Amino acid sequence: MDVFKYASDAVYDVFTGKKKSGAAMMDVMSKFMSAANPVNSPSWLQTMSPTIVDPFAQHYENMNYFGGKLAPEAPGYGPDKVMSYQSYKNAGPIGKTLAPLFNKISGGSKTERGVVDWSPNVWDNYFNFIAGGTGQFWAQSFALANDATGGKFDATKIPVVKTFYREGKPNAGDRSKIESIVRSSSVTDLKERDYENLTKLLSRQVESGEMDAKKAASKMKTVKRRQYIKKFADENDITYDEAVKALKEQ
């Protein structure tokens, strides 16, 4: 575990004004706990925290539910970029609308960062968590209308059509594969390829609108927790149920 690197990075961030001392210390602790994480999860914080705080934990760590970057990061050199205009290609119209709006309301502009200057990807993540599947339906409909007015209409992007059309790649069996992995996570040691497969299945479900991001995150968290309990049971030579009881009493 490269604890010294985490600490030196934190000191640099504090001295350069990029982070407050408290935030820097929390960052060091989060990275330290993640490095020691026995369940191969995106982070210890996200694995052990209640689902209701997932979007806040993901925003704080800039890490989505399967371990990838949630949004582009501000460069550690040169002038600060206005993050409300920095996003990945998958950023939706909701995030692209809210990000510059709140940046402007909080005192920012296209060239100056406001108090609330978040990437469109961060806003999309909060929106998808709060609004769920219904929100994603309307977000996709909003995007479709936006494309239609710009001459980019694609019928396969209509939410109802999108459920049944996957450009020749049916995903009807994805849900059963996900449930199979979830069920087996309490009795089988999952390998890295199993996590990669689960991530791919969950991502495809979210992208197609068949599962909201909140539910996908919950599925991944369930698998991680069950693996942690199983590992605890194996190390102490007890049953899974006994491990659950023992961990509750800790």
Tally of helical segments: 11
Task: Note the gap between the termini.
Answer: 26 Å
Helical content class: 55-70%
Structural class: mainly alpha
**What's the helix-strand series?**
HHHHHHHHHHH
Radius of gyration: 20 Å
Low-confidence spans: pLDDT under 50, at least 5 residues? 36-40, 153-161, 163-170
User: Total strand count, please?
Assistant: 0
- Average pLDDT rating: 74
Shape: globular
Beta-strand content: under 5%
Largest sheet composition:
none
Describe this structure in words.
The protein is mainly α and 250 residues long. Helices cover 60% and strands 0% of the residues. α9 (192-208) packs antiparallel against α10. The radius of gyration is 20 Å and the shape is globular. Mean pLDDT is 74; it is low at 36-40, 153-161 and 163-170.
